[in-house]
Amino acid sequence: MTQQDKDARLNRFLSANDQQLFPQEDIAIYLSCSTHTLQRMRCIGGGIPYAKIGRSVVYKKADVLAFQESQTVLNTAQYAS
């Protein structure tokens, strides 16, 4: 996938409404992680809520944004608790 393709997917995600569904590839681009990381979060729990449509995994934009917000920390001391 070219950088231009990634930019197009990112722009589509950012301009979408909160109820829009996106494939894991788009979410990985937005969160700057791999699809393997998303898969691991699905297996161990504690990740982003998702739906399976057939064999495809999709994420709702609102759920992705809520997950991202929940990961916000003020300082490294918060990791100790």
UniProtKB/TrEMBL annotation:
Protein name as annotated: Helix-turn-helix domain-containing protein
Classification via InterPro entries: DNA-bd_dom_put_sf, HTH_17
Domain (Helix-turn-helix) ranges: 25-71
Pfam families linked to this entry: HTH_17 (PF12728)
Tree of life domain: Bacteria
